[in-house]
Prior knowledge:
single chain, alpha+beta, six-stranded antiparallel β-sheet, globular
Amino acid sequence: MGNECQANVTSIVEITVTESSCPMMPQEDLLVLEGPRINYAKSGPICITALNAIYPWVMVTRFDVKTPALDFDSENNCYHCVCPCGTVHFDIQKVAP
């Protein structure tokens, strides 16, 4: 197995909280991933349960997979996801480095 997860070309993925009734993840909160790492300076708090649940969408976003099978929103160029509690909604989008 290669080192695709640690590729030299760093992808930047932004996870934005679009709706929230959870005090741990306020609306408009942002999580910035640079490759496989969280950029803590640019990110707010993150619930690990939520991150674990939405991680499949994070990975397909990192590697430019855009599939209607996972509800890719081509108009907004992002995936929409909801945490397992149903209290936090996210938009997951790859941005230019």
